[in-house]
Amino acid sequence: MSKLVFLAIILLTIISPANFLHKTKAVTIINTFYVSDLQEIDTKLLCQSWVHFFEEQTTNDSVQIYHSKEFKDVRPSRFRMQYTFHEDGQCDWLFLAPDDGHYFKKGNWNVSKENNILEIVKDGKPEKYKITKLTSDTLYLKPIKPTKTIQE
Predict the structure, then answer these.
(1) Which pLDDT score is estimated for 78?
(2) Residue 24: pLDDT above 60?
(3) What pLDDT score was predicted for residue 147?
(4) Nearest CA to 121 among 93, 140, 142?
(5) For residue 72, what is the DSSP state?
(6) Sequence-ordered alpha helix ranges (H) in the chain
């Protein structure tokens, strides 16, 4: 078989309608993942204890990955942020104490159902996160940096 015929067969295989359809399905699946992010959050899934798994995060991504306490064994670490969200809008969050005597503090939380923004109030200061994924055992939070206002 000549090189030209071999290259023509490879080229036709790459641009064939079946292959194009397969790639289109892959793009549809990827788009579905992002569209699902816009669905309303089921706060019942959120109401449990969550542990930060920083090992699963990529260095280039600001999304924080949490798993339920029952998800899998947690490897030892000096500190792992933990949240427990209660149905009444209260929460417990693990405080990073300077003397390594970490303890839970009380706070409040709510979710804006229009845009899936989770607001956690810690010591009277709100922190906001975009919920990008929520299942029964996985929670992805993207921190939203507060906008600075100019004081007159």
Answers:
(1) 86
(2) no
(3) 77
(4) 93
(5) S
(6) 3-14, 17-36, 43-46
